[in-house]
Amino acid sequence: MAEFSRYEIYMILNQPRPLWLSGIDLSGSDLRGANLEDATLIGANLNKTNLTGANLAGANLGGCHLEGAILVGADLKHARMRGTTLLGADMREAVLIEADMVEANLSETNLVGANLASVDLTNANLTNADLSGANATDYKLSRAKSLIGAILPDGTIHD
Length: 159
Fold this sequence. Notes:
- This protein is largely without helices or strands.
- 8% of the residues lie in helices and 0% in strands.
């Protein structure tokens, strides 16, 4: 659980931009609609954080922990997410255009309807992920380390 009170989180998120929040523990926080555009969150703990509709465009989330996080409809355009752990995250309809997700762990992640245009999934783990309706090309998906059990954009299950 986050170490900060609601008021402290409000104050943190309303500092002058860009925000530098590397290593911060905001796990379990309610950050729905938060503006974290271009924020640096390297190695931050955002496990089980609600980021529904949040603006994370251009944010650096490298090595960040987002296990079980809710990112429904979040804007992650151009986000740097190398080595980020998103195990079991809910990323339905998230916008990930040109996001760098090299070596990200997306196991069991819900990516239904996500916009994955030009996303880099090189060596990403998509084991048991649900990509139904996502606009990911076969080429981009073929660069992933694992697609075992993943539901592909056309609804077929990869074996």
